[in-house]
Write a structure and sequence with these properties.
The protein is α/β, with parallel strands linked by helices and about 400 residues long. The chain folds into 2 domains: about 160 residues, Rossmann fold (3-Layer(aba) Sandwich); about 170 residues, Dimethylsulfoxide Reductase, domain 2. The strands form 5 sheets. It has a 7-stranded mixed sheet, with helices on one face. Strands 9-8-7-12-13 form a 5-stranded parallel sheet, covered by helices on one side. It is globular, with a radius of gyration of 23 Å.
Length: about 400
């Protein structure tokens, strides 16, 4: 094997940041995760900076981008699909130009943040779940849609410090078209599945919270779910040594979904009166955890989801999602994105930048927020980093004002 094949990589294709990816697996495209396979199969060579759809030198593209930002009265930095270093650069650019800043996952991130701001919560880490959890309740999600290796890396492991992983009980509560196969234990035990449509999770979760708290529930069914089954789940949670309630905010796509998340986190609070329980918010993609953290550190507020119509120029960053684009009709758009970015209409300016973990190095926060992991370029290229391009644009802006 070559030296490159011996290198261990961290995969940024989802929030788990699996750090056991070998250079050999990348070279041979051998993965147990479809997201990793798709990420490492991307082509990152050959892209050129463009202005109005025509190839130009990098310096000309930078001048064009700076010119548009100079003319804008209310610019917006959006998409923001990048790593910690890129996020810091974007916050700097937003402050320099007076731009608002958002992320393509801002709406789902805000569901969690509203609960954290309003009530606080008690959450855990992937390592703690791996070592301690004996009951795992998946609420409105199968997780594997977002974090394909969750069960492989966290649940059905060969070792755990304080529990027997093979004996864990997995329960699915609600959600649409869930893939529950990963929840099957190594000995063949099927997970318990309590079906209800996602839109009925608010009343079902509220009922479960009431039962955990010992409140009387007189109905026989709630949204088609037998209350007796919810009572059994409540007793299982209360008897657990370390119950973990898992959700993915992206899967709770209905009005006021933050109230359902609050019911989840307050159920955890109720359980902790007499036993041990924790919440675990999963998902995480496009660097959303890292970007929200960096934005909060540097600005003192969480990232928001502003009105698109009120902005007259958009800087769109899409390092991890080459297909992701701003809403149709947004103009003018400056795209600082992956070299394999795809757009139906040529943007005003396109500058290809290195994708962290693919053709450039970087750093990312894991979805549980407990650690940052280094991203090593799997296919090193000479593309500029987002930080470098943003610095060039800011230097041009300062020169224009001089």
């Amino acid at each position: 094997m070559t030296n490159q094949e011996h290198i261990m990589h961290t995969c940024p294709a989802c929030g788990l940041l699996c750090d056991d990816i070998t250079g050999e697996a990348i070279a041979k495209q051998q993965f147990s995760c479809g997201k990793a396979a798709k990420f490492y199969a991307r082509t990152t060579s050959g892209a050129q900076p463009q202005v109005g759809g025509k190839n130009v030198p990098l310096e000309d593209a930078v001048k064009a981008a700076a010119g548009l930002l100079n003319q804008a009265e209310a610019p917006l930095v959006a998409g923001s699909s990048t790593d910690v270093h890129g996020a810091r650069a974007l916050v700097n650019l937003a402050q320099h130009t007076g731009a608002a800043m958002t992320h393509l996952n801002a709406s789902s991130t805000l569901r969690n943040m509203k609960v954290l701001q309003h009530r606080g919560w008690q959450t855990t880490t992937l390592t703690e779940v791996r070592n301690r959890a004996d009951v795992i309740l998946m609420i409105g999600t199968d997780v594997v849609t977002h974090n394909a290796r969750f069960f492989e890396r966290v649940v059905w492991v060969n070792d755990a410090m304080f529990t027997e992983p093979a004996a864990r009980k997995v329960i699915y509560l609600g959600g649409d078209k869930l893939n529950t196969k990963p929840g099957v234990a190594p000995d063949g035990r099927a997970p318990e599945v309590i079906e209800c449509a996602s839109e009925h999770l608010p009343e079902v979760m509220a009922t479960l919270r009431a039962l955990v708290m010992g409140k009387p529930v007189t109905a026989d069914t709630v949204a088609g779910v037998a209350v007796s089954r919810l009572k059994a789940v409540a007793e299982t949670l209360k008897a657990a040594q370390y119950a973990t309630l898992v959700w993915v905010s992206k899967d709770l796509h209905y009005d006021h979904a933050e109230l359902t998340i609050e019911n989840i986190t307050e159920t955890v609070v109720a359980l902790n009166q007499k036993s041990r329980a924790m919440g675990l918010s999963l998902g995480g993609s496009d660097g959303d955890t890292s970007v929200n953290y960096a934005h909060t550190w540097l600005n003192g507020v969480i990232i928001d989801a502003p009105e698109w119509e009120s902005h007259d120029a958009v800087v769109w960053v899409n390092s991890y999602s080459p297909d992701a684009m701003p809403p149709a009709g947004t103009s003018p758009v400056i795209i600082l994105g992956a070299p394999d970015s795809k757009f139906e209409t040529a943007p005003a300016v396109f500058i290809p930048v290195a994708t962290p973990g693919l053709d450039g190095n970087g750093q990312q926060f894991r979805v549980d927020g407990s650690v940052t992991l280094p991203l090593i370029a799997a296919k090193p290229s000479d593309l500029p980093t987002l930080t470098q391009v943003v610095a060039m644009i800011q230097a041009q802006l300062q020169g224009d004002l001089a």
